[in-house]
Design a protein that fits this description.
Strand order of the largest sheet: 3-4-5
Distance between the termini: 38 Å
Shape: globular
Number of helices: 11
Helix content: 40-55%
Largest sheet: 3 strands, antiparallel
């Protein structure tokens, strides 16, 4: 059973305001473009491709961002998809973005630093499980440039994360903070989960997806083995709902009377479809579980009516309850991974 630490219930109201970021390139800044690219791929309608290209090229400054690790999310969901689907010449942007990400690689830890150091929060070199998702950018940069340094940094990050982030049951911590001078672990905590020892659901989804992707890019069995172990923990967790849509934290003391996080389940479904195409035992079981998730997400309980829900596809996601941010709202990355899962499901069934 996954470890849980219980405490007082959290009672928060959802803020239904749609948030846009103006000129600030937030970590979610590529998912709208990516959703347009997937709509083009799913429908063949060129209007989606034209709009996707316009919005993708509007964020080309991502290639010079060095103050956070999220450039992998931003670049691969937008420029990466445009190159894949339309053969657009985004090679230089992808490589330069990877070069910017490499400025955050710390030799002493063997990791890409996620967030900035903070004396107030007692963080020196924090690394979050979400950072696994940015490694796809580095793998792609080696493929495009022939320079193995990006690949080596990605493998180093994945291996150290494998060693430090996971508990024996397969669940993972959200944040591991390191000493940048010695490379040693300082502490293991959460920022967006219920408690330091709880199972923050979206973190588990990032781990499942990130290590499935890392296996695709490297062929290293240790990565897919971890992805499977973390998925099995989530699937078999006593607090997993019957409809396979995860609660925001699997250790929330309010379960079942607390928030679901649809983004967790859409990320998991997409990863599981890819996992079902790999050299693993009984691959069909992963597609079967992904199908259960997608059946739930496509139902009226989670999929909005056309023209409602701020024109997002899915309802009921959670950003960060401890920060009282994005609670029980639609989120653009939930839609992105839902569309990616639809695309992967279609490809498999063809």
């Amino acid at each position: 059973m996954s470890r849980c630490k219980f405490g007082a219930p959290i009672d928060l109201k959802a803020d239904k305001t749609t948030i846009t970021f103006g000129n600030h390139l937030a970590w979610q800044g590529g998912f709208f473009q990516g959703s347009l690219w997937y709509l083009y791929e799913l429908t063949g309608d060129e209007k989606y491709a034209a709009t996707a290209q316009r919005y993708t090229e509007s964020i080309s400054d991502v290639q010079y961002v060095t103050d956070n690790h999220d450039v992998g999310f931003i670049c691969m969901s937008s420029f990466g998809q445009g190159m894949r689907l339309k053969g657009l010449d985004y090679k230089d942007i992808i490589i330069q973005t990877a070069e910017s990400l490499m400025t955050r690689f710390r030799e002493t830890t063997g990791l890409i630093q996620s967030w900035q150091a903070s004396e107030a929060l007692d963080r020196k070199c924090p690394v979050i499980i979400d950072n696994m998702m940015n490694l796809e950018l580095l793998f792609k940069a080696t493929e495009l440039s022939g320079d193995k340094k990006y690949f080596d940094a990605a493998v180093s990050h994945a291996d150290r994360t494998l060693k430090e982030h996971f508990r024996p049951d397969g669940s993972c911590w959200h944040v591991v903070d390191y000493d940048p001078e010695t490379g040693e672990v300082r502490k293991k905590v959460t920022a967006q989960g219920y408690s330091d020892d709880s199972v923050w659901s979206r973190g588990q989804a990032w781990a499942i997806y990130g290590y499935t992707m890392a296996y695709r890019c490297t062929g290293y069995r240790r990565y897919i083995e971890q992805a499977i172990k973390t998925f099995e923990m989530m699937k078999n967790h006593p607090n997993m709902a019957d409809d396979c849509v995860a609660y925001w934290d699997m250790c929330s003391p309010d379960i079942p009377n607390t928030y679901r996080d649809v983004s967790t389940s859409s990320i998991m479904a997409s990863a599981l479809y890819e996992m079902s195409t790999m050299d693993v035992d009984n691959p069909g079981q992963y597609k079967e579980y992904a199908d259960k998730i997608m059946t739930s997400l496509a139902s009226p309980a989670y999929r909005a009516k056309l023209g409602e829900n701020g024109n997002f596809i899915l309802m009921h996601s959670v950003g960060s309850i401890p920060h009282k941010s994005e609670i029980d709202v639609p989120l653009n990355y939930a839609d992105y991974y839902f569309l990616e899962a639809l695309k992967r499901k279609r490809d498999i069934e063809k």
